[in-house]
Amino acid sequence: QVQLQESGGGSVQSGGSLRLSCAASGHFGGTYCMGWFRQAPGKEREGVAFIDRVGSTSYAKSVKGRFTISRDNGMKTMYLQMNSLEPEDTAMYYCTADHWFTRVVDGSGKYWGQGTQVTVSS
Question: 36 CB contacts (<8 Å, ≥6 apart)?
Fold first, then answer.
C-alpha cells in the first residue's frame, strides 16, 4: 500500500516563496511518476507540474518559470519549489503518483495525498 503525504504549505505575501514536499511511504520507488495538482475554491482541479521516472518535467503555462518540480535521489520524496507567488496561486495543493505518466498528467493517478493549503496575499 502506498501513501502520499504533503507538507510545506502556508501563507505568504505576493512575491514570496514556498517549498512543498510530498513524501511517499509503502512499496514505492523509482518506477512511479509523480505530479502536483491544485484546486482553488469554486474552481476545477488544475495540473501544475509533473515528473516522470527519468526526471523529465513539464509544467502548466501559469507556473512555468516560477515553479520547479524535483525528486530526491531515493525517489520517495517529491518537491515543488514555488517562487514569485501570486494571489492566483492560492489553492489546496495535492500530490499524485502512478506508474503511468499519462495517468498522472490527466489526473487519474492511482495515489493521492490529502493536500496542503497555500495562501498568497496581495
Answer: 20, 22, 47, 48, 49, 50, 69, 78, 80, 93, 94, 95, 96
